[in-house]
């Protein structure tokens, strides 16, 4: 069966942000998200500026930046507009609705003010999504639920994944999709984003497991590959990003033509 193009899938989304992201993938011809796991503001901004033209999404862990100031957020937002990518704060919220609402809105990082996308565990139940949605909907933000992690020994079994999908279905205008290793639904509106991507596969010393872009997109039916160290630890991150971009895009075209 032929797979719909990203721009055809944009028309099926209840979330305006999901539609925007699907359209961006086809317009920019990249399904590569960069996991910019660096620890200084200067490194983060340099990566965003240099690799920005290659990516659809820049994923941050803003709380690992040792010299964080709010100016960083203004500068990141400017670069996102300049290079046309979305910002994804990989916060992995995991508390009750009332608490996550505060964590999303306030504190030092004010995530809801600048991150187009954030993510949450479904483990606490639907209140976590409700809490985030109360704030996020008003700001045209989107949420990814963690359905299946890349790390060895995770506890997310088939029942957990299916329950996560059911939870997402309650909030189709705010949940845009999943962090997952496989497409978990045939519904075209969901965006499947897959971390744990490396061109040569393998693992790290702390249980991270890698699959290739081809396996994630073509075999597992995912939509966006998320790569960190495969790119940022390379001698030439720009060249490496271009290799991942080409591999991810080729796998998408192949899947569409099947
Ligand atoms: O299951 C997951 C979910 C996430 S969001 N596995 C992951 O590795 N991640 C994140 O993706 C992780 O927090 C890190 O920021 C990135 C993977 O980095 P890499 O250097 O291993 O590519």
Report on this structure:
This protein has 258 residues and is α/β, with parallel strands linked by helices. The protein has one domain: Aldolase class I (TIM Barrel), CATH 3.20.20.70. It contains eleven helices and ten strands. It has helices at 6-10, 16-28, 41-51, 70-83, 97-105, 111-114, 127-136, 158-169, 213-219, 229-232, 237-257; strands spanning 32-35, 57-60, 86-93, 117-121, 142-146, 175-179, 191-194, 202-203, 209-210, 224-227. An eight-stranded parallel β-barrel has the order 1-2-3-4-5-6-7-10, surrounded by six helices. A two-stranded antiparallel ribbon has the order 8-9. The longest helix has 21 residues, at 237-257. Residues 35, 37, 61, 90, 149-151, 179, 195-196, 208, 226-230 line the site of 6-sulfanyluridine-5'-phosphate.
Strand element count = 10
Distance between the termini: 7 Å
Strand order in the sheet with the most strands: 1-2-3-4-5-6-7-10
Helix content: 40-55%
* Total of DSSP H or I helical runs spanning 4+ residues: 11
Residue stretches low in confidence (pLDDT < 50, at least 5 long) are none
CATH superfamily: Aldolase class I
Radius of gyration: 17 Å
Please indicate the count of domains: 1
Strand content: 15-25%
CATH class: Alpha Beta
Tell me which ligands are bound: 6-sulfanyluridine-5'-phosphate
Average of per-residue pLDDT values: 97
Shape: globular
Q: Fill in the CATH topology.
A: TIM Barrel
């Amino acid at each position: 069966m032929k797979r719909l193009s990203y721009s055809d899938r944009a028309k099926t989304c209840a979330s305006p942000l999901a539609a925007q992201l699907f359209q961006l993938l086809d317009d920019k011809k990249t399904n590569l998200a960069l996991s910019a796991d660096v620890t200084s503001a200067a490194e983060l901004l340099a990566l965003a500026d240099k690799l920005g033209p290659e990516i659809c999404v820049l994923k941050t862990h803003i709380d690992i930046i040792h010299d964080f100031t709010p100016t960083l957020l203004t500068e990141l937002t400017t670069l996102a507009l300049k290079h046309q990518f979305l910002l994804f704060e990989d916060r992995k919220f995991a508390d009750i609705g009332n608490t996550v609402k505060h964590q999303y809105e306030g504190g030092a990082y004010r995530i809801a003010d600048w991150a187009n996308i954030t993510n949450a565990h479904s483990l606490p139940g639907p209140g976590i999504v409700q809490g985030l949605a109360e704030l996020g909907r008003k700001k045209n933000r989107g949420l990814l639920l963690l359905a299946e992690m890349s790390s060895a020994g995770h506890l997310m079994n088939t029942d957990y994944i299916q329950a996560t999908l059911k939870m997402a279905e309650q909030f189709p205008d705010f949940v845009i999709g999943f962090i997952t290793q496989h497409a978990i639904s045939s519904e075209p509106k969901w965006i499947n984003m897959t971390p744990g991507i490396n061109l040569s596969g393998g693992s790290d010393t702390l249980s991270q497991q890698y699959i290739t872009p081809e396996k994630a997109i073509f075999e597992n039916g995912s939509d966006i590959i998320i790569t960190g160290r495969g790119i940022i630890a390379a001698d030439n991150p720009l060249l490496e990003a271009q290799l991942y971009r080409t591999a991810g895009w080729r796998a998408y075209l192949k899947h569409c033509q099947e």
